[in-house]
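G., before I forget:
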Amino acid sequence: MQNKLFYNFLFLLLLKHRIKHISIFIISTLIVFILSSVVLLSNALQEEINTTLDSQADFVIQKMRAGKSVNTPLSWSDEFREIEGISQAQPRVYGQYFFKPNAEHFTIVGIDFFDEQKSKNLQKLITNLDMKKFLEKPNMLIGHGVKALLDKYYFFDYYVFKTPHQKKRKVNIYQIFPKESSLLSNDMIIMDIDLAREILGISEEQSTDIALYNPNELEAENIYVKLVLKHADIRVIQKSDIAKAYKRLFNYKGGLFLILYMIVLLTFMMILYQRYSMVQSSDKKEIGILRALGWSIKDVIILKVTESFMVAFGAFLLGFILAFFFVFVLDAPLLSNIFYGYANLPMDISLHRSIDFSLVSLLFLFYILPFMTAVLIPSWKASVIDPLEAMR
Amino acid sequence: MLKLLLSLALLSTLSFAQMFQTVPAQKAQLLQKGDAKMYCHACGMNLVKFYKTSHAYTKNGVTHQYCSLHCLVNENLHSDLIDAKVVDVSSLKFINAHDAYYVIGSSKPGTMTMNSKYAFASQKDAKAFVKANGGKIYNFHEAVKIATNDCAKNNKMIDKKRTMASKKGAMMLHKLCENKNIPEFHSFAKAKTYILAHGNCGTLKDKQAQAIAIYLVKKALPSQVNPIVAPKDAKCPVCGMFVSKYPKWIAKITTKEHKEHYFDGNGDLMQFYFKSKENLDKIFVTDYYNITAIPAKEAWYVIGSNIYGPMGDEIISFASKADAQRFNADHFGKKVLSFDEITEDIVETLR
C-alpha cells in the first residue's frame, strides 16, 4: 500500500484540501517558531554564560561592613595564598562610574596587564596590544555601548573622568573591543589598574575584591570553610553559586515559557480535534468511495494520519528554520530582552550558532506527538463511516 | 612650567600618600651611599615608599639600609645588631634601635610581614599609637626575636610573591624594555638601579622596576608545571577504565622501552608497580592541590582520607610533606607515607 502511488494520491489530496489545511499549517508554524526560538535562545545564552563562567574565579572574596561590601585590604590576599589548594589570589579593581550627562553607569575594570589573564577574551585582546604604547599615557579600551554613548557627547578620542577628589583625569580611547567578545563587555572600560584605582578612588592598599583560583574542585568545600573562618566580615562567593544563580534565572524564565507553551498547545490540540472531527459531507463521500474501491479501515486511517503528519512536519520544519534565522541571524530582537533582563547599556551581541540535536528531537517530540494524538481519533472516526451511507 | 612641575610633584606625593609607610621624598633620610641608595639593601624595595618601617645597620664601617625589620634580621641572622638604627614614626628621623619602643601587631600593614612592626622614640607616642591601632609594645631585643621567629613564615610568603612578581617581571622586560642584553645580578637593589638607568623601558613605575629586578635576580623561574595528559583512548591496565575522563587522578608510568601506561588513580598505579615485570623508568603522579605532574618517588601520600577517587578508596599524592600533612588533618586521613613506605599490603587493603 505504502508506495509511490499512495504518496502521489496523498499529495493530490493535500493539494485539493489545501484550504482546509492552511489555517492549521499557519498556526502550527507560529507555535513551533515561538517555542523553538525560545529554546534556541536560552540554550545559546546558557552556552555563552558557561564559557564565561569557565574563566571565572572559583571564589570571590568581599569585605562586608554593615551589610554592604566595602574595599578589601590587599593583605588579605597574602593570607589566602597560604591556604593549601589555592593556586592564585588576584586582587581585582573594578567599579561603576556614573556618567552624568546620560545618567548611566560605565563599568571600569582595572587590569594588571602583566598578570596572567584568566579570561580568554581578555587574553586575546591583550596579546595584540602594544603594551608600551598603551601604558605610556592614560589609555583605555572601551566596549561598543560606551563608544556610542561617548560619541553622542562628542568625546571621540578621549574622555575626562572626575575622581572622587574632584580632580580631572583625561583618558584617551585606545581601542574599541571586538563585538563578539562577550555578554559582559558592552558597558565596560578597561584600563591600567593604577589608573582605575585613581578614578574609582580605591587606595593602593585595597582592592574591590579578591579572586581566588582553586584547581581541584574536590577541595572547594574545605577551602570555603577555611575562608569563612578567617575573618568575621568576609563574604565568600563560590563559582558554583554564580552558576546556580544563572541557571535558576534561565530555568525560571524558560519554565515560564514552557507553561505558556503548554497552555497554547492544549488549546491548539482542542482546535485540531474539533477541526478534524467535523467530517464534511464531501469528505464522507470521498471516504465512502475509497472504501467502496476496496480500501480497508486501516488503509484509510493510514491515509488520514499521514496527511496530518505531512502538515505537522512541514509546519515544524518551516517554524524551526524561521526560528533559527530569527535567533542566530537577527539576534532575536524583542525576545532577547526578556532573557537579558536589566542591563546598563543596551546589549548588542551576536550569539554563537549551535544546535543541540537532542534538543531538536525533543522539540520535535513535544510538538508532533500532541499533534498526532489530537488527530488520531478524528481520523479513525472518519474512516469507519459506512460507505453505503456515505455515498447516498 | 613651574606650575606643571609642582602639580606633578603633588600628584606623585598624593598617589604615594595612600600607603601608611610612605613619606614625602624630601622627608626621608637615606643613610646609605651609592647608586642604589634609594632601595632596600636586601630586597630592593623603595625606601621612601616603606620609610616608616626602615632600618639601618652599620657593619664594618659600611651602612646598609633596609625596608623592614624582617629584611634586617634575615640578612644579619645571629648577629648582635649593635649599631642598628630605626626610623621613629613620629619624627621620621633615625634613632638608635636599642632605645626604640616597638609596636608589634597593630592594624596598620607591615612591610615584608603580616605582623607589622613600627618603632617610636618616646613611650608616649608608642602608647598613643597602640591606643589608635592596637598592638603591643616591645623593646628592640624582643622585636628582633619575634622577627627571627617569623622569618621562615615571612620568607615563604615573600617567596610566593616573588615567584609571581618574577613572572610579571619577565613579561614586562619582554614587552617594555628595549635593552635586551642585561648582565646578571645578585642584588635586587642593583638590578633595579640598572634597569631604571639603562633598561630603556620608558617610564617605569617603582612596582614595575621591582618586578623586573626580581626577575633579573631570580631568573630561574620554576619550570612550568603541567598536568599529566592522557590520550583519549588510553585505558588503565589494571581496571580497564578510560583514564582521560579523570584528569585529577591520572598517574603515568613510562617503561625503559618508552611504553606509556596511564592509570586512573594511584591505587591502580601501585598495583601495577608491584606486579609488573617490565623495566619501569619514570613514574609520575598528580598533585592533589594543584593538579600538576610530580615524580612519584618524591611525592608524599595520604591513605584513608574521606576523598574518593574513581576507584573508591585512594592513595592521594602531594608535592610536599607539609601539604600531605595538612590534607591528612583536613580530610581525616589515616597516614602520611613516602613512596618507599607504601607496601603491597597497603595497596591490597584498598581494593
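Chain A touches chain B through 28 residues (CB under 8 Å). The longest helix of chain A spans residues 239-277.

More on Monday.
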